[in-house]
Amino acid sequence: MADWTDCLNFGISIAKQASEVGVMATNENAVKLKSSPADLVTETDQRVEKILISAIRNRYPQHRFIGEESVAAGEHLELTDSPTWIIDPIDGTVNFVHRFPFVAISIAFTVNRQTQFGIVYSCVEDKLFYAQRGGGAFLNGEPLHASGQQGDITRVTSHMCYITHDIMSRDDVALSTMTSNIRRLLQFPVHGVRALGTAAVDMCQVATGGADAYYHIGMHCWDIAASAIIVQEAGGVVMDTDGSEFDMMSRRVIAASSAAVADRIAQVIQAFPCCRDDEDNCGCGATGVN
Ligand SMILES: O=P(O)(O)OC(CO)CO
Ligand SMILES: [Mg+2]
Ligand SMILES: [Mg+2]
């Protein structure tokens, strides 16, 4: 089996460099709206993506890329069997613009469409989450373990803590479905619901054991691919919100401390139409879901 450790180490080093010269070096105020008031892009997003892609391309000329801002600029999104870097240059652009201190560079690497490693660098916190297939998950070099919480509601000690994400879409159906999902989840014995504003860092909280579950509908592959393998390698579970196998292109994800917790969330979550990342005009009936 091929060993991609070299690529992982290179990805970590360029994520840190791009944070230093891009994310952390900029006071960005030139903001453009993409699909909704919660979907922003700045010149820094675009610059950081260019820094990352040109460094990787220089070192690995045969590799392919799926980058959030390249796709936004019109590049075709296609995951092939070739080694592919899936990049979110700034996950948490709204936070970045408002100086809310949770922004991350998220990088996943796939071969034969299977994720081999994931890197989530939370720039302001200086926290580096990473995991390689079969090699465990780490935060700043220390092993990560999901909480293992099983979510047995008969136990008074049950303390599930969920993380969800702020609602990106302003579409009526999406808004009402998302709010009613949270309402249904709050009927479980939960201690609280949190949202940091970056899907990548939110999901990594499940890998740390700080949260027992995360779910979202409407994220893209660059938001969730890296943190999905980090959760899995920390002993957690990722699945589709309909209970089927996780598919980074489906835009639906549950990440949880155990299969039991993931299953319980899948049973109460209602989805709304949301086009797959890898299909243009898929005919699902989505309106205004970014
Ligand atoms: O800031 P970004 O990359 O748009 O991502 C958001 C969701 O789309 C936060 O996860
Ligand atoms: Mg993102
Ligand atoms: Mg982004």
Main attributes of the structure:
7-stranded mixed β-sheet; globular; 290 residues; binds magnesium ion; Fructose-1,6-Bisphosphatase, Chain A, domain 1; 2 domains; alpha+beta; D-Maltodextrin-Binding Protein, domain 2; single chain; binds 2-hydroxy-1-(hydroxymethyl)ethyl dihydrogen phosphate; 5-stranded mixed β-sheet
Question: Overview of this structure, please?
Answer:
With about 290 residues, the chain is α+β, with helices and mostly antiparallel strands. Helix content is about 30%, strand content about 25%. The protein contains eight helices and 14 strands. The protein has helices at about 5-25, 45-60, 70, 95-100, 170-185, 200-210, 220-235, 260-270; strands at about 30-35, 40, 65, 85-90, 105-110, 115-120, 125-130, 135-140, 140-145, 160-165, 190-195, 215, 235-240, 250-255. α1 (about 5-25) packs antiparallel against α2 (about 45-60) and α6 packs parallel to α7 (about 220-235). It starts with a helix and ends in a 22-residue tail after the last helix. Bound molecules: 2-hydroxy-1-(hydroxymethyl)ethyl dihydrogen phosphate (G2H) and magnesium ion (2 copies). 2-hydroxy-1-(hydroxymethyl)ethyl dihydrogen phosphate (G2H) binds near residues 68, 92, 198 and 199.
